[in-house]
Specification:
The complex is a heterodimer of chains A (290) and B (118). With 290 residues, chain A is α/β, with parallel strands linked by helices. Chain A is built from 8 helices and 8 strands; from the N terminus they run βαβαβαβααββαααββ. In chain A, strand 5 and strand 6 form a beta hairpin. The N and C termini of chain A lie far apart (60 Å). Helices cover 53% and strands 14% of the residues of chain B. The chains are: A alpha/beta (290), B alpha/beta (118). At the A-B interface, helix 4, helix 5, helix 6 and helix 7 of A face helix 2, strand 4, helix 3, helix 4 and strand 5 of B.
Chain lengths: 290, 118
């Protein structure tokens, strides 16, 4: 099978295109996919994470995946961040040190995720970030990672990738899984197979809402992510199955994708020039916690 | 008065990362027998660098399903925790109190809003 990938921006259309790729290849088994990049005039580097998740799903069905005709500029970005090296392209050194590489991790790899963040966030706007911001940013990324561990059931693991934009003073980091999506967790929780993706995301974003059924409370991770983006004037995308959510410039929006995007992807864009103090500490003193 | 037991989270988790619910569960399982015996527990977060809500939900949040608020307030305290992490813990504790008080009512109102089929 030969398919043409279009230009992929880190937005609703970009995710729709990836969901379409997943749909077009859904019945491909023990075959070959030639993904032609000749129509890709641009690809946001962080989108290598969800693209990697979709392609891993295709390869998992015993298909050989090949990427061909990559325009030079796109190839440079995707060789620098290591995405194309899994498709036998040679790596390219990132002289500008703005790349946050593509990496596939297993659900049990929290330690490797820590190494990844330590190694690749350093020097990418973090000196400008206050120490508090750097710490809180990392904490939020772990919240997202742990959400994937607890809820995704992704047998293919977790895919991460990012990009630092020094001129714009922003940093994008995307964490994608190839799991069952927020919708299926919410459906199970309510025992209702008709729940759609957008209301499922809307529900999951509320403080204290969790699909965990054990004795552990939950439902704070996404709320904390949202609070952080609001304070930081950053941006969030959450894409899960047919659902697309954006928080940007203090505004929330939801949309339905045309196709079923496999799993859940979360992108956090942090404003690295932010000098706000991230102390919600006035809310807590050690004696009043319990 | 009996000396409180200092529980070093770093030692139980085996490092500075408190980022998984499984590790939180291990901390929980270590402190529950102490609390059942009526011992005072001081959770020390010395050397802990990164701490997230999923860890704290498991380690501390679920105690509110097993012990009364009064009992927890009487027996559990924390130390060596920076202000940001204390704020996270406070949110976890408040959320746990709500969760165990009325988990069902929480959901019923939402169920009405879900249901547009794909």
């Amino acid at each position: 099978m030969i398919l043409y990938l279009p230009t992929i921006h880190s937005d609703q259309d970009g995710y729709d295109s990836l969901a379409e790729l997943a749909k077009a290849t859904a019945k491909l088994i023990a075959d070959r996919l030639e993904l032609d990049f000749s129509r890709v005039s641009f690809l946001d580097a962080n989108m290598a994470a969800p693209l990697g998740a979709v392609l891993a799903g295709i390869a998992d069905r015993f298909n050989a995946v090949e990427i061909v005709n990559v325009p030079q500029m796109v190839e440079r970005i995707l060789r620098k961040n290591g995405f194309l090296t899994q498709f036998r392209y040679l790596p390219l050194d990132d002289n500008n040190r703005t790349t946050i590489p593509f990496k596939r991790l297993q659900l049990t790899d929290e330690g490797l995720f820590e190494d990844y963040l330590q190694r690749h966030l350093k020097g990418k706007g973090i000196p400008q970030m206050t120490e508090g911001l750097g710490k809180v940013f990392k904490q939020k990324l772990f919240e997202v990672f742990q959400n994937a561990v607890i809820h995704s059931e992704s047998e293919l693991g977790i895919f991460v990738c990012g990009q630092f934009f020094p001129q714009l003073q922003k940093l994008d980091l995307t964490i994608a899984d190839a799991g069952i999506g927020i919708r299926d967790n919410v459906r199970r929780y309510f025992n209702d197979p008709k729940i759609a993706s957008v209301p499922a995301i809307r529900w999951a974003l509320q403080e204290g809402h969790t699909t965990k059924k054990g004795k552990q409370p939950g439902g704070l991770g996404l709320k904390f992510l949202h609070d952080f983006a609001r304070l930081n004037k950053g941006r969030i995308h959450i894409v899960s199955r047919f659902g697309f959510y954006e928080f940007n410039a203090g505004r929330e929006s939801f949309a339905k994708l045309e196709n079923d995007f496999p799993g859940t992807t979360v992108t956090l864009e942090v404003n690295t020039a932010d000098t706000s103090a991230y102390c919600l500490a006035s809310e807590a003193s050690r004696d009043g916690i319990f | 008065m009996e000396t409180p037991v200092i529980v070093r989270v770093f030692d139980i988790v085996g490092g500075p990362l408190c980022v998984s619910a499984d590790d939180g569960q291990r901390v929980h399982d270590k402190i529950v027998p102490l609390l059942r015996d009526g011992k005072k527990v001081v959770l020390s977060f010395e050397q802990v660098e990164t701490l997230i809500s999923a860890f704290l939900n498991a380690a501390i949040g679920q105690l509110y399903g097993e012990f009364s608020e009064e009992r927890i307030r009487e027996l559990v305290s924390v130390r060596d925790m920076d202000k940001e992490d204390q704020a996270v813990l406070k949110r976890v504790v408040d959320n746990a109190k709500t969760y165990f008080k009325a988990p069902k009512e929480f959901d019923q109102a939402w169920k009405e809003e879900l249901g547009d089929e794909e």
